[in-house]
Design brief:
Oligomer: single chain
Helix content: over 70%
GO cellular component, one term: proton-transporting two-sector ATPase complex, catalytic domain
InterPro entries: ATPase_E_C, ATPase_V1_Esu
Distance between the termini: 125 Å
Keywords: Coiled coil, Ion transport, Transport
Number of helices: 5
Strand content: under 5%
Pfam families: vATP-synt_E
Family: Belongs to the V-ATPase E subunit family.
Length: about 240
């Protein structure tokens, strides 16, 4: 019974897989058939468009032949049209040697209009030459202007760099002079203080004033005074008056 159920399950699974594969193939075939039908319909639509376009072109050509045939009866207008078409064709070709193919009835008229055709082509060529020359001149003018603008910016930048360098050098000189001046002032102060220390009365007043100024700058409750060894006794003497002041 167990083996029977196992075999039955295997067969059922096998049949299920075969059915699924069958429907997958059918689905792919249907999808392919739809694509083929869509492609055929698209091709038919394109053929219809091409047919309509071809019919339209044929109708336009027939209408043009008809109108040219009617126009040829008016020699003045036909001459102008033939000259314009000849000029357009030659301008399109731009060849030094061209063989014109015309109706036998138009040979004489064509020979008549050729001088004016040549003049018009020369005039148009001269006009196009002047236009191209103007375009090239304008292009070169713009390039020259851009070149001088770049040069002007470079010169301006160079001036700024030089000005900055000169300003930095001037600042360094000012700092050097200031440093030398401060050094000279300090040297002079040391020299004068050294001379002043020989006059005990004046030196005592100066030391007291400097001590008061220093303590007022600090504004601290406890201060350690650092003085020369020779000024220890004098400093102790002036401290009461410093405290009072």
């Amino acid at each position: 019974e167990e083996e029977f159920n196992i075999e039955k399950g295997r067969l059922v699974q096998h049949q299920r897989l075969k059915i699924m594969e069958y429907f997958e193939r059918k689905e792919k075939q249907v999808e392919l058939q739809k694509k083929i039908q869509s492609s055929n319909m698209l091709n038919q639509a394109r053929l219809k468009v091409l047919k309509v376009r071809e019919d339209h072109v044929r109708n336009v050509l027939d209408e043009a032949r008809k109108r040219l045939s009617e126009l040829s009866k008016n020699s003045a207008k036909y001459s102008d049209v033939l000259r314009s078409l000849t000029v357009q064709g030659l301008l399109q070709l731009l060849e030094p040697n061209v063989l014109l193919r015309v109706r036998e009835a138009d040979v004489g008229l064509t020979e008549t209009i050729l001088p004016s055709v040549a003049e018009e082509i020369d005039a148009k060529a001269e006009e196009e030459f002047n236009i191209e020359k103007g375009r090239l001149v304008q292009h070169q003018r713009l390039k020259i202007m851009e070149y001088f603008e770049r040069k002007e910016k470079q010169v301006e930048l160079q001036k700024k760099i030089q000005s900055s360098n000169m300003l930095n050098q001037a600042r360094l000189k000012v700092l050097k002079v200031r440093e030398d001046h401060v050094r000279n002032v300090l040297d002079e102060a040391r020299k004068r203080l050294s001379e002043l220390s020989k006059n005990s009365a004046k030196y005592s007043d100066v030391l007291r004033s400097l001590t008061v100024q220093g303590l007022l700058q600090l504004l601290e409750p406890n201060v350690l005074l650092r003085v020369r060894e020779a000024d220890v006794g004098l400093t102790e003497t002036i401290l009461p008056s410093v405290a009072e002041e």
